[in-house]
Amino acid sequence: MKELIVSAIDTGTVIDHIPAKSVMQVVRILGLEDFENMILIGTNFDSKKLIKKGIIKVKGKFFKPETINKIALVAPQATLTIIEDYNVKNKTIVEVPEEIIGIVQCPNQNCITNHEEMNSEFFVVDKTNGIKLKCHFCEKTFGQEEMKIL
Amino acid sequence: MKNRSLVSICDYNKDEQLKILEVSKEFEKKPKQRLLDGFVIASLFFEPSTRTRLSFESAINMLGGRIIGFTDAGSSSVKKGESLRDTIRTVNNYSDLIVMRHPLDGAARFASEVADIPIINAGDGANQHPTQTMLDLYTIMQTQNKLENLKVGFVGDLKYGRTVHSLTQALANFNCEFSFVAPNFLQIPTQYKEFLDEKGLKYETLANIHEVIPEVDILYMTRIQRERFSDPQEYEKVKDAYELKKSDMEPAKKNMKVLHPLPRVNEINIDVDSMPEAYYFQQALNGVFVRQAIVSMILGIK
Ligand SMILES: Nc1ncnc2c1ncn2[C@@H]1O[C@H](COP(=O)(O)OP(=O)(O)OP(=O)(O)O)[C@@H](O)[C@H]1O
Ligand SMILES: [Mg+2]
Ligand SMILES: [Zn+2]
After folding, report:
1. Nearest-by-CA chain A residue for B191
2. Residue B194: which H helix or E strand, with range?
3. Active site includes B101?
4. Do domains B9-128+287-298 and B130-284 have the same CATH topology?
């Protein structure tokens, strides 16, 4: 086995190729703060695909696709590796979901979601040239550069 | 349509919209009928609006329905800091249908998800005002005897004008062609141009009203707020391109009609009012019939 930059785990999930600046957002989106198993987080590694990347390894945890796909907004190139008995069992890439609930704040200041205690809700209307979201409530469309992650 | 909220014009498909126009015609012939006996309709105006509110209330009263509610947020519990969720939940218990106007974009969609009873959006911020769109469609149908293949010119503040956005979406079902006349910084948002592109419909963007007058079947005027211009002098320089006068109308087609959601300020000179093309006051009257149709269809009476 080749040398690992973050220690090995016997079983669990490895999320690799996260842009370094997005690692903490991924932690938050997946709710890892409240997780009790061992979690290894490494960041600012050199990477071929990204300028600087981060890796998160969660022992004994396998995420549902709809959960893991939420990170596609901040880590569109992330890879997901399932580890069993220290071996790579399965590798997948994240997919941008059709709908995003919570997570993103609507950039429209006059949108009800910014004034009432409620979840934001967006439809993903374009995945090809950067992600474009349409707010379910105010019906405005936004590019990725305008989005703020909660 | 029974029990289905009308929040955005896109909530109803083309056939449903045409059905509303048909029923509106019945009400135009006979606006006073006791169809809403025993129904209680909540009219929640979180933001004052004389025209739309009176038109709704008149429509409901003519059909014998009862109205409860408030005419601005100041006279409601909103002033005490109640959430929209709680206001809607409460009113939900007292009425069969809610008509609401709210200053925030998306408020009506949110209300429709909180309430068990249907919601009619009477304007949510800069977003949607679907009953206005329906009365615009009705008026266009009334004046042109069709909705298909018309050429429609929109003039004024096309960036913030929600009536323009919704009417564009609605007319896109009828293979219309569009001319958007506005200063560059108030032009129709990209979102709507992309929408028309997807539908394969023709449109042009222009900066001068005079170019479209000879071509269009409908000239839809909207207000340009002078305050949108960083320099009031700038407005003075360009206003001739967005203000309609009797003398401008000479090259218009015979069937051409001028519409306006009202209130107007300077964008239509009063010397246009007496011309056969001026149709904005009839347009406002149509609001009553169209709202009668929408209310009674949602309540399942028509
Ligand atoms: N036992 C293990 N414990 C923890 N992490 C592991 C283990 N085995 C592999 N990994 C990590 O899982 C990810 C995928 O492993 P793989 O061996 O396929 O790496 P790779 O060839 O670098 O693939 P990639 O193209 O995804 O970078 C890598 O981040 C690797 O460091
Ligand atoms: Mg690697
Ligand atoms: Zn929004």
Report:
1. A141
2. helix B190-199
3. yes
4. yes
- Burial class for A51, CB neighbours closer than 10 Å (0-12, 13-18, 19+): exposed
Measure B107 CA to ligand 3 centroid, in angstroms: 10
Kindly report the protein residue whose alpha carbon is nearest to atom 16 of ligand 1.
A88
Residues of chain B positioned with their CB less than 8 A from the CB of A113:
106
Can you tell me the ipTM of this complex? 0.91
Q: Which residues, 6+ apart, have CB-to-CB distance to B285 below 8 Å?
A: none
Over chain B, what is the mean pLDDT?
94
Put simply, the answer to whether B85 touches A118 (Cβ < 8 Å) is: yes
Catalytic residue among B52, B87, B131, B163: B52
Closest atom of ligand 1 relative to the A10 alpha carbon = 1
Pick from A110, A115, A136: which is nearest to B109 by CB? A136
Contacts of A135 in chain B (CB under 8 A): 106
Distance of CA A89 to the CA centre of its chain: 21
Q: What does the pLDDT look like over B162-207, one tens digit per residue? A: 899 999 999 999 999 999 999 999 999 998 999 999 999 999 999 9
Q: Which fold has domain B9-128+287-298?
A: Rossmann fold (3.40.50)
Is residue A1 predicted with pLDDT exceeding 70?
Answer: no
Express each pLDDT in B9-32 by its tens digit: 999 999 999 999 999 999 999 999
Residue type, B33: Q
Bridge partners for B258 per DSSP: B219, B278
Map out the domains of chain B as residue ranges.
Answer: 9-128+287-298, 130-284
Kindly identify which residue of chain B lies nearest to residue A132, measuring between CA atoms: B191
pLDDT higher than 90, residue A117: yes
Q: Whose CA is nearest to atom 18 of ligand 1?
A: A88
Class of domain B130-284: alpha beta
Chain A interface, Cβ < 8 Å to B: 108, 110-113, 115-118, 135-141
At B48-99, the pLDDT tens digits run 888 999 999 999 999 999 999 999 887 666 777 889 999 999 999 999 999 9
Residue A4: per-residue pLDDT: 83
Query: What separation in Å is there between the alpha carbon of B70 and the centre of ligand 3?
Result: 26
CA A134 / ligand 3 centre spacing (Å): 8
